[in-house]
Amino acid sequence: MAENETIQYSDDMDLEIPSDAGMTVKRLWRSMGRQRVRLVIVTVSVIFYTILSVAAPVYSAKIVDLLFQEIRAAVSGERTFRVTWDPVGREIMVLLLIYTVTGILYTFQSFLMASFAERLSLELRTKISRKLDRLPLSFFDNHKTGEVLSRVTNDLDKMSEVMQTGLLKLFTAVGMVVGSLIMMFRFHIGLTLVFLVFTLLSMVSTRFFAGKTLRYAARRQQAVSRVTGQVEESYSGRAVIKAFNREERSAADMREAVEELAETSRKADFMMNAVNPFIRLVNRLGQAVIAVFAGKLLIDGVLSVGVFQAFFQYVYQASEPLTEAAYMINSLQSSIASVERIFQLLDEEEIKPDPRQGTGNEAETSVIKNASAAAMTEGRVEFRHVKFGYSPDKLLMNDISFTAQPGQKIAIVGTTGAGKTTLINLLMRFYDVNGGQILLDGRDTADMTYGELRSNFGMVLQDTWLFDGTIAENIAYGRPDASREEIIAAAKAARADFFIRTLPQGYDTRLSGDAENISAGQRQLLTIARVMLCDPAVLILDEATSSVDTRTEMEIGKAMNELMKGRTSFVIAHRLSTIVDADLIFVMRNGDIIEQGNHRELLKSGGAYAELYNSQFESTDQ
Q1: For the residues of 75-97, what is the DSSP string, one character each?
Q2: CA distance 308 to 305
Q3: pLDDT in tens, 461-478
Q4: Do 481 and 368 touch, CB atoms closer than 8 A?
Q5: Which candidate, 302, 385, 304, 382, places its Cα nearest to that of 570?
Q6: How large a percentage of the chain has pLDDT more than 70?
Q7: Which CA distances in Å does 247 have to 165, 233, 256?
Q8: What is the pTM of this model?
C-alpha cells in the first residue's frame, strides 16, 4: 500500500496457460547449462538484499527512538540537543551502510539477471536458427510464416523480458513479503492482522479488475490486428480496389474497423485507469485504520515512536509486491507458455542427417567447394520405382520410374495438382522418398550430402525471390566468390545486362523489400542470371519465362537453349508451345506419369497430351 504505487497492465498481458508448466520449467533449467551459476548467484544476492532490506526499518526504529529521547531531554532542559557518535551517530552510519549495500546488491543482481536472460535468449536463438536449417520443407508447408517468426522473435523476447524483470521481482517479492510480515508480527500481532485484512481485500479487487482488464485488452488487440490487416490489404490491393471502383467500400470497412478499435480502447483504458484509484482508496482506508490503532498504542506506551514508523515501512515493503502479484503471475505464466512453444519448435522432426557429417565451417562452404564438382557431373538422372506421399498412409506417387540421359531436355506437363512440383522436390531432396531410389550418375541421392547433391542443380522458379542487397550480390548468391567479370557475363547471357546498366547505380543498385524498384520480368532475369553463374550440371525450370513479355521470352529462350546444351534439363511447362523441342515429355496426373514420349509421338497417340495441346491452341484461336 505504498503512497506512489501504481498498477499497470500492458496490452500483451494475456491469459496464455502452458500445458505442462512443471516439465517446461525443468527443461528450461536443464537448458541453462553454465548460466545456472549466474542464477544461483542472483538468488544468493536476493537473499542478502532481502535480509538487509528487512533489517533497515529495525535500525531506523532504534535511531528514531534515540533521537526522540534526545529531543525530549532537550525540551525538558536536562541537556542540549546534539547528535554524538555514541550512540546515535554510530547507528546512523550503520543504517547508511545498510542502504548502500542494498543499493549495490540491487544494481548487481539487476545487471547479472539481464546478462543471464540475454545469454539464455542468445543460446536458444542460436539453437532455433540451427534447427530451422535442419527442418524439412514439409514443416514450412504446414506452418504459417507468421507463426514461425513469432516463435523466433516474440516468444524469445517475452521470455527474456520476464526473466530480466518478472523473475527478479518474484524472487525479491517473496523475500520482502515474508520478511516484512515476520517483523510486523513481532512488533504487534493485532496491527498485522488489520493489514492482512485490507491487503486481502485489495488483492481480491485487483484480481477482479485484472480479469476484466485482460479481456478488454485482448479485444483491443484483436481490433488492432483487424485495423492493421485492413491497412495492409488496402495498400497492397490499391490497384485492384481502384480498378473495381471499391474505394468507398474500402474506406467504409476501414472506418468500421477504426470505430471498433476506438470503442474497445475506450473500455480497456477506462478499466486500466479505474483500477488504480479504487485500489489506492482501499489501501488508504487500511492505512488510516492502522494509523488510528497504532496511534492509540503509541499513546498507551505499547509502541515507541521508532516502532510506529518502522511498522509503516514494513507495510510499504509488503503491500506493493502483494498488489502486483496477479500481474507477476500472469507474466510468468505467459512466459512459460512462450518457452513451451519454443521447445515445441526445437522438438520438431528434422531432415535425415547427411551421410557424412562435416564441421561447421565445412558445412558453410559446402556449396562453394562442390561448385567445381557440378562441372564434372554427367547429369544422368534415374527414378527407380519411387513412392512418395506427404503422409505415409496416403501416397501421391505409387511407382515412378524413368531415366533422363545427360544433355536431355525433359518436359513435365499436367494439370494443377498433378505432381509436377512434387517430382522436382524429390529430385532436390526437399522431401525424402517413401520407397524406391533416385540416382544421379548412378549414385543414390540419399547417400549424398545435401550440399553435394544440390550443387549439381540450378533452379529457376516461377515465383522469383531476391534478397536484400545489391544486384551483383543477388546474381552471385550461389557463388559468393564470383568475380565482377563473371557476374556481368552471366547477366549478359541472361539478357539482363542492358536493363541493369540503365539503373542509377548499375550492378550496385540495392534491392530491398520485395525488389519492387524493378519489374517482375527484370526480377526473373536476375534469377536466371543467378543460375547461369553457377553453371550447374542439371537445370530445373519451373515456368521460368512466365513473367516476361514475348520478345524477352524469345531472347531468354535463346540463352536457355545455349545454357542447356550438354546439360540435363527438367522443364515444368504450362504453355506447351515452349516444350515442343523437348527430348522427352512426361504427362502427369494424380502423381503418376500416364504418358511419355516426344512431342510428335504424343500428338500421334492422341492421348492426354494431344488433348491438352489441342485445347490450348483452340482457346488461342478463339
Answers
A1: HHTSS-----IIIIIHHHHHHHH
A2: 5
A3: 777 778 888 899 989 988
A4: yes
A5: 382
A6: 85
A7: 47, 12, 14
A8: 0.64
